[in-house]
Amino acid sequence: MKTRPSQIVNAPQTTTSKKSTQTGLAFRSADRVNFDTVEFAVSGVEWDVSGQKRSLVSNGDGEVLFSSTNRLPVIGKYGMHNLHVRYNPLSKTLSVEGSLFGSILGQNVFTSQRLAKGLACVISCLKKKLGFSFAVSMQELIDKHVTLRRVDLAVNLQFKSGRFVKTCLRQIARQLVEQDCAMRKEFTSVYWSPRNGRYYSIIFYDKGEDVRRKSLPKSKRTGEEPKKFFENLRDECGGLLRVEVRLQSAELKKQGLQNVKAWSGNAPREIFNRYYKNVPVLNVVSSGLTCADFEGVPDRLRPVIALRKLNAPMEMMYSERTMARHRAEFRKRKIDLKSPAREKAVPLAKVLTASRIKPTPPSLVDARFAPLPDAVSDPPRPVKGRVSRTT
């Protein structure tokens, strides 16, 4: 039975994200993006898994359609950031998920922008521990046989204290709620997830608190060297606000980012900004009126900002269409009119900047993953396309 349009009772889904007026972070030449969790598949791998437990899927005739070993954890340095490995003997595909650099370095805060180098180190380490093999060189394996299924990119912004970081997170959460975004807040983390995170999501969280919570139990049960390492790491992470862009398999495929070559050079910085600039995080006006509040504001818009600062019911003064036009005008000025004025508002658009990116502390630098000098020729660039911005 066909359904006529008049019989459809469900309200159509509407797009709640606004056209972005942000340009992302203005990275300086020395700034680097950190790779965190990466999920990837490697084809052409030979591995005898006859002694391991497996999951099988068969059809009605008993023909095996899918076979995979159960998840095998591989312990990372100092017992942190384990990698999880599966193997499909039918397609000879090895699947790995985890923080590449975290498993090697014992920490995932200050890692590296060199994805290919991290993959080579992890695959070599797993080959020694698990005993699998492949017939091609490591370079060819990474260039032609590795398919990326998830990539997390992150930057660490340094603030004066963990308390101020939590103040910023509370305001970010309130603004995203006012913008009617698909978001959630959990403890000291704020998640912005367009389309429920099917394609990508962006997370703001207190990295100092995260490191303290995860490393304290480990440092109590380990030797002197790991204990000193974790103490130093906790000191370096105080007042860090972490911003992560998490790209899922569907988005990587859509944007042509499943190949490792697409992430060479400064491509990670460009890709990070392509998504981060969509987050509707702007400045919120503070309550009270001063002459400085009207500097640079045209005469026709001054009544609007005055009413917002007084938290007057603006819907009683202006029509919906007029308010939409005013919001668009102030978004260009990086001001959020939807959020109510607050007594002490943090100017998020001014504080969440690349100038606060904390470089890797000297005590945590690993020469294997240090940045390479800028190449003379331009690196391969990823396919540019529209990102999924519907919430």
TrEMBL record:
<feature type="domain" description="Replication-associated protein G2P N-terminal">
    <location>
        <begin position="92"/>
        <end position="264"/>
    </location>
</feature>
<feature type="region of interest" description="Disordered">
    <location>
        <begin position="1"/>
        <end position="23"/>
    </location>
</feature>
<feature type="compositionally biased region" description="Low complexity">
    <location>
        <begin position="13"/>
        <end position="23"/>
    </location>
</feature>
<dbReference type="Pfam" id="PF05144">
    <property type="entry name" value="Phage_CRI"/>
</dbReference>
<dbReference type="InterPro" id="IPR022686">
    <property type="entry name" value="G2P_N"/>
</dbReference>
<feature type="compositionally biased region" description="Polar residues">
    <location>
        <begin position="1"/>
        <end position="12"/>
    </location>
</feature>
<protein>
    <recommendedName>
        <fullName>Replication-associated protein G2P N-terminal domain-containing protein</fullName>
    </recommendedName>
</protein>
<feature type="region of interest" description="Disordered">
    <location>
        <begin position="369"/>
        <end position="391"/>
    </location>
</feature>
